[in-house]
Amino acid sequence: MASNVITVNRDTKPSYFPIFYGMWLTLRNMLETLFVKGRSATIEYPEQKRNISTRYRGVHLLTSREDGTPKCVACYMCATACPAECIYIEAGERPEKTIEKYPTRFEIDLLRCVYCGFCVDACPEEAILMSRENDLVGTSRAELVIDRENLMHRGKLAEVGAGYRPVDHDVRRPVRIAALERLASEHGIVPGMPKRG
Amino acid sequence: MPKVTIDGKEIEVAAGTSVIQAAEQAGVRIPRFCYHDDLPVDGNCRMCLVEIEKFPKLQIACGTQVTEGMVVKTQVESPKAKEAQKNTLEFLLANHPIDCPVCDQAGECYLQDQYMDNGLHESRVVLEDKTHKRKVVDIGPIMLDAERCVVCSRCIRYEREVTKTNLLEFVNRGGATQISTYNNGPITHEYAGNLVDVCPVGALLSKDFRFKMRVWFLKETESVCPGCSTGCNTTIDHRDGEAYRIRPRRNVEVNKSWLCDPGRDLYKTIGANRLTTAHRAGGAVAATADVLAEVAAKLKAAGADSAFLATPNASNEDAFAFKKLAAVVGGRLDFRVGNPQDKVAVRRDPILQREDRHANTQGLVDLGLGVTGVDALLADCKAGKVQVLVLQDGALLQDAGVAEAAAKVPCVVALATHQGPHLAVAHAVIPVAMWAEADGTFTNFDRRVQRFKRAFDAPGDAKPGFEVALDLLSRLGQPLEAATAADVFVLAAAEVQDWADLTHRTLGSMGRAVGSAAAPATA
Question: What CATH number should be reported for the domain holding residue B44?
Answer without folding.
Answer: 3.10.20.740
